[in-house]
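Researcher: We're reviewing a set of sequences before deciding which ones to prioritize for further study. For each one, I'd like a predicted 3D structure that I can look through quickly. This is Methionine aminopeptidase. If possible, include the structure in token form so it fits the rest of the review sheet.
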Amino acid sequence: MIEILNPTELARARETGALVGGFLRTLRDRATVGTNLLDIDRWTRDLIADAGAQSCYVDYAPSFGRGPFGHYVCTAVNDAVLHGRPYDYTLADGDLLTLDLAVSLDGIAADSAVSFVVGDPGPEAAESHALIEATERALAAGIAAAGPGARIGDLSHAIGSVLGAAGYPINTEFGGHGIGSTMHQDPHVSNTGRPGRGYRLRPGLLLALEPWVMTDTDELVVDADGWTLRSATGCRTAHSEHTIAVTDDGAEILTLPR
Ligand code: MF3
Ligand code: CO
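Model: Here's the predicted structure for Methionine aminopeptidase, in token form for your review sheet.
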């Protein structure tokens, strides 16, 4: 089912989005060399509780994971890219960290992810920067394509064109999605596609757009934890995500801090 939000629900979505954007800013500022991924998870749990919001992750048990996720934020380091389950690991200089967070407030969810390098960037600085920059530019292109009358294929095409031109192979198993009263909804938004195809955007539709890439492969492997998806070759990866609202005259990014 595809949900279209009414103006009251859209106002709530703006609140949830700002909350998620603010949480990610806080977590990003705190995460540094010496931070344990389990610290980030606890900080997230406390931020959510203090705001009176709910985690979309802790009890989530979809077919693509093993049992409930059991944590509050996805933490993916270097070759880990999606659904990174926090574990006892201490961040080191040059680690490329992705934080992916979805919470619900007053019945509306928002979802966002950010990738960045901690500490001294080291020998893999150029590779990390290129990966992150490609996903950020692809995300911006997808958002820019979400104008009035656009179809999902236009967004997918915009995202995929940037990732492809940057030289990255594109995996089509996981992509963006509708979001609203629940985190994962139709329509699916592939990170590559043909323009002019698919569902036509309508004002009140919320979409989570999430380009992600791996340096030299489009193949994923599942970690022994049953959740974390890593690059099959062990190469570095990056992921950027915003929740946007389709409006009468374009798209509004909801997951920015205020
Ligand atoms: N927020 C992720 C996405 O971008 C989904 C994470 S599901 C979890 O769609 F259970 F791993 F947290
Ligand atoms: Co998402």
